[in-house]
Amino acid sequence: MAEKHSFEMDVNGDGTPDTVQVIKGDDGSATYLVDTTGDGRTDIHAVDHDGDGVIDEVRIDTSGDGTADVHLTDLPDPE
Fold this sequence. Notes:
By secondary structure, the chain is mainly beta. 0% of the residues lie in helices and 42% in strands. The chain has one domain (3-71). The chain has strands spanning 3-9, 18-24, 30-35, 44-48, 57-60, 70-73.
């Protein structure tokens, strides 16, 4: 069963606490959901797929519409 924790911290440096939800999978993976605007939506979605402590994928909603505008990944290209 996945383990879920929520934290309040200033992630973006604006002086206001942001909500960070951490979901740890049984396989060692970790998902970080960050709400930087206080609207209850995920603005930053970061994933450590293999549990090695390194973020493998990040999706960022810069416009606040609930859809990722930026997607960065360090995963191998599927062939």
